């Protein structure tokens, strides 16, 4: 059945940092969808017709759903844990919470709640670290598949330096990853990310296995963490004394390339930046997490100038908000601390098409171009009294976007569509 989703419509076809002609905006617009896909986007008058079901979101703004390219599924109850930086935070709060995901009933229950939070915050695709237990990834993929929601996820590989309840072995991590790839990579909208947690928790033997998985499954992503925290870097280099630098460890095992997502990438040496650019590896900026854990200030312009494509992500539960709006808010402030500017058009591009580009999935998500998935978010700039008050003085689309970016959160999400299906109750249906 075809449906017309009506409102003010905005999406991007280029990066606003590169060009003045980056976006399509229809003030009186609509998106025509069928079977989870976008058929057409344009002015409402050109797309409406007798008998077509319409859902009217005016005066709200319809955009491609947000993409969160770095989040930890088993940390949904770790968010807002007090008082420590990365390594203590992992040991004190995170590993014990992840241990609970060995229980399939717990993992299944939490998977539904995880996806509910994502869509409540306007996020329609995430790249997720699961726990080290195969069951946790099974639970997340099953739940996402049932909703026809595009998820990129992987079982964490970690065989040392944590607690026994979350340790696997090089062989079991290889075998479990293989099984998950066979079951889920390319099943509906699900994709697999080979997921060595980081060099501290993987032995050389395990990184060797991760490299074998990358060679055997070149269509999968690879996600890990890189240079988030100074103590982490020192500890890492002590564990791999032959490595030239942190990145070199991953490089040595064949883990770099355009499908590789390197969470944080903050304290990088010039050689590492050059090598990331050369291999096409992606950086992922996690602003709320970097502030919360006191990790450091991401160099957005520096990496960009070096030719590196970056994503921007929540990193829940090190991150403090599920909202990509709040993620952009904190991202703006971190870049301010570096004397860099995040324009609202560039910010909304980043959370949609920019993150899709970082994943190499821009033909499918992050855009409203005909043929792409009908994954959409509907944004309400009047969501709170304070936002409405400020919006009285907004004269341009950019100003309105900036209010959403700085003041918005899940209250600004009027609706989220996943593969054409509304995730919240309460939209106005009419028949034209
Ligand atoms: N480095 C290794 N594991 C993690 C994690 O779970 N969160 C963050 N922020 N950094 C990590
Ligand atoms: Zn992370």
TrEMBL record:
EC number in record: 3.5.4.3
InterPro entries named among the record's database cross-references: Amidohydro-rel, Guanine_deaminase, Metal-dep_hydrolase_composite, Metal_Hydrolase, Metallo-dep_hydrolases, MQNX/HUTI_composite_N
Cofactor annotation remark: Binds 1 zinc ion per subunit.
Keyword entries, A-Z: Hydrolase, Metal-binding, Zinc
Catalytic activity: guanine + H2O + H(+) = xanthine + NH4(+)
An MF annotation (GO) of this entry: guanine deaminase activity
Keyword Lyase: no
Role played: Catalyzes the hydrolytic deamination of guanine, producing xanthine and ammonia.
Record protein name field: Guanine deaminase
Organism name: Paracoccus rhizosphaerae
């Amino acid at each position: 059945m075809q449906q017309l989703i009506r409102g003010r419509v905005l999406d991007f076809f280029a990066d606003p940092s590169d060009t003045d002609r980056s976006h399509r905006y229809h003030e009186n617009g609509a998106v025509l969808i069928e079977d989870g896909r976008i058929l057409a986007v344009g002015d409402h008058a050109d797309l409406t017709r007798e008998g077509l079901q319409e859902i009217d979101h005016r005066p709200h703004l319809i955009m491609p759903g947000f993409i969160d390219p770095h989040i930890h599924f088993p940390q949904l109850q770790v968010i807002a844990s007090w008082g420590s930086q990365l390594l203590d935070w992992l040991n004190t709060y995170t590993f014990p919470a992840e241990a609970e995901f060995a229980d399939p009933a717990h993992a299944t229950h939490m998977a539904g709640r995880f996806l509910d939070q994502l869509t409540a915050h306007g996020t329609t695709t995430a790249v997720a670290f699961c726990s080290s237990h195969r069951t946790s990834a099974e639970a997340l993929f099953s739940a996402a598949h049932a909703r026809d929601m595009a998820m990129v996820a992987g079982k964490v590989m970690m065989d040392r330096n944590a607690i026994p309840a979350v340790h696997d072995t090089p062989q079991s991590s290889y075998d479990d990853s293989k099984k998950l790839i066979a079951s889920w990579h390319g099943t509906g909208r699900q994709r697999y990310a080979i997921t060595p947690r980081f060099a501290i928790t993987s032995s050389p033997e395990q990184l060797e296995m991760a490299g074998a998985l990358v060679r055997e499954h070149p269509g999968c992503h690879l996600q890990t963490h890189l240079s988030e925290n100074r103590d982490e870097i020192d500890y890492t280099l002590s564990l791999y004394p032959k490595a030239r630098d942190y990145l070199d460890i991953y490089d040595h095992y064949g883990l770099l390339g355009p499908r590789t997502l390197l969470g944080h990438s903050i304290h990088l040496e010039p050689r590492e930046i050059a090598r990331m650019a050369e291999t096409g590896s992606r950086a992922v900026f996690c602003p709320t997490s970097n502030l919360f854990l006191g990790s450091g200030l991401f160099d957005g312009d520096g990496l960009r100038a070096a030719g590196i494509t970056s994503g921007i992500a929540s990193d829940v539960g090190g991150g403090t908000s599920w909202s990509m709006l709040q993620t952009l808010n904190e991202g703006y402030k971190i870049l301010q601390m570096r004397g860099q500017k995040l324009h609202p058009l560039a910010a909304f591009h980043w959370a949609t098409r920019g993150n899709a580009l970082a994943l190499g999935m821009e033909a499918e998500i992050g855009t409203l171009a005909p043929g792409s998935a009908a994954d959409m978010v509907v944004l309400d700039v009047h969501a709170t009294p304070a936002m409405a008050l400020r919006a009285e003085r907004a004269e341009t689309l950019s100003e309105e976007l900036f209010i959403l970016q700085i003041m918005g959160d899940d209250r600004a999400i009027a609706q989220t569509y996943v593969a054409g299906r509304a995730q919240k109750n309460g939209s106005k249906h009419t028949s034209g």
